[in-house]
Amino acid sequence: AHPGRHSRRPSAHLHLVEALLQVVEGMYRGGDLGEPDYHLLRNLILEDHEILASAHDKFKHGIDEHDLQELLTSLIRAEKARQRAVDEAHRAHETPSWSTIPKTLLNLLQVAEAQELIAHDDAILLCNAFVHGNDLVHGAWEAYEVMQDERDLLDTLIRIVRTGALTRDMAQSSNSAAAGVSKAAARHDTGAEEGEAGMSDEDVQVIKHLITTLANQGGLSASHKEVLLALADRRHKVLLAAYEVFAADQDLEEFLDTLRVTADHMASELAGPGSNGAGEMEESEDGMAARELKELLDCLVADEKLNNLEHVTLCRLIDGGDPNVYAAYDVYTECDDVGDLIDTLMRVVRREIRRGTAGAGHARASGANGHGAGQIRYTASDAVAEANGARSWGGELSESGEYEQDLGDEEEDEEEEEDEEEDEEDLAGGDLSLSTDDRKEIIMMMLERGTLDHKEAVTLTRRLLVDEDEALHDAFDAFEVNRDGRDLVMSLKTLAGDDPEAVPLSMGELAMHVDGRELEEEEDDEDDEAREARREPIVNSFSEVIASMGLTEEEATALRLSLARENVFMRACLEVFRVERDEDDLKDSLKRIARRTINAASLGPIAGSN
């Protein structure tokens, strides 16, 4: 207290105040008093609460510590009762609606509840605290609006709940709000007790009808429907919470996302020992893959290797069953190369961000027309990636880890013929709808498998991406219809051989043209100075490129060695960069080539060198 605060008061009164403060301090240090109550009591004592004034005469002739503790307890009860009365008076004048809660906050709480990071009652309590203007919850939301960090927001909300401050201040309002939302969701009158008890029979029937209707309309897969109906029969509280929010905001897309996430999360728990159906096993594997991928993303975010936009985009691709993401995961399960998985994910998310709404819309349209969101194993990109991952990446790594890719060795001709047949068989399964990226991946897969040599791959890549050759696209269109892998391989080889521009180039010549201009471009009208300015060879600036990638000395040496030996993968990498002008893709490819070169050099001759 301030030294002159009680200067005009009787000494007995000052003695009482000092005794009260000492008792409060002792109770706080002994753990009998929480920090909020400790500060509350100190303020009341220093402000001369009316109960203290009435107790003045009682303690004139001596002070008993037990009596002091009882006095302090009555002080706390009286003040809390007063605050509760004030809160009730405010709520009587105005009852805020959940419609004022931002959808981002509602969705975050739903997902957290589905993942069992926060209890259902705590989520309701946070919603009520927000609509009643709780300073802690609003402060957390305002921080999110500035930082746009959902992980930090969720962590802050969980900490707020654990302090118990909301339970003390919002207990009665949470009951009334939960009851109100339950009424809106079930479309009939229910009491607060019924809302707390869980789903009524009518709730179950309404939710099951909604799930069936959405599944029939294609919004939910058959496996999702089966899991969600089982959860409804068990009266799972997450379903009730999702339906309550949907009834309040009528956001169908958000409701569908919540149902899908819940179904994926709960599928493994619902699968009993007798659940051996193929559909259930496939769904369980996809759910496990999604969880492992998201755990990896969390680690990358924690290491600051993934920004918020990339994290959100990848999570959306995972939840949407993006074939490229799951194909990368399949390759990871075969090769156990987490570095390669991270590189692939970064390439996918950067391409998705650059592509924007138009590219994403095209991918969704082709998926909706031919495959369905849940069947991620049967799209074209996934089919190609499975062939590439299961046999090309994994098969080309021997048990000792050596990368076997010497295309010039005559002893491997028979193996290449077998690989070509395997390529044809792999590509021949399932209905396909191939984008330009898918077609490029097929060409690169054939290059890695040895079905195409590097000259043919360079020619086909240029004709696909630069010339947009109709004959080449016709060959892929025919493959989409007849699914004849052998016919596709023969067509590609014929087109590559018929190309008059497929002239062999040295690595130096190729590096001279990474500026993206056509190799046959006439330069007769240009003077020597302009020609030299336009031809800035990557070979001369290769050290700068390596330095900007943050590679180790061993990796940098491996890249220089690959360039000097005209490594076939280095050539393909530079040719793709010449066409696409994607620096991030170039750096990712160079890192992969460096790792492969180091791995091969530690076990034998440099793989892929001429």
Keywords:
single chain, mainly alpha, 5 domains
How many DSSP helices?
30
Let me know the average pLDDT.
68
Number of domains: 5
Sheet/helix structural class: mainly alpha
Number of strands: 0
Helix content: over 70%
Strand content: under 5%
Task: Please write the string of helix (H) and strand (E) elements.
Answer: HHHHHHHHHHHHHHHHHHHHHHHHHHHHHH
Biggest sheet layout: none
**Spatial gap, N to C terminus:** 86 Å
Uncertain segments of ≥5 residues (pLDDT<50)? Answer: 1-8, 171-197, 273-283, 357-412, 424-430, 512-526, 531-541, 606-610
Q: What is the global morphology?
A: elongated
**What's the alpha carbon Rg, rounded to whole Å?**
34 Å
Overview of this protein structure:
The protein is an all-alpha fold and 610 residues long. It has five domains: 11-93, no CATH class; 97-270, no CATH class; 274-378; 405-504; 531-601, no CATH class. It contains 30 helices and no strands. The protein has helices at residues 11-29, 35-46, 50-55, 65-93, 103-114, 120-131, 135-147, 150-163, 165-186, 192-197, 201-216, 222-233, 237-249, 252-270, 278-302, 308-319, 323-335, 338-370, 380-393, 413-427, 436-449, 454-465, 470-482, 485-498, 507-512, 528-534, 542-549, 553-564, 568-580, 583-601. The longest helix has 33 residues, at 338-370. It is elongated. The termini are far apart. Mean pLDDT is 68; it is low at 1-8, 171-197, 273-283, 357-412, 424-430, 512-526, 531-541 and 606-610. Residues 399-428, 518-530 have a biased composition (Acidic residues). Residues 389-435, 515-535 are annotated as: Disordered.
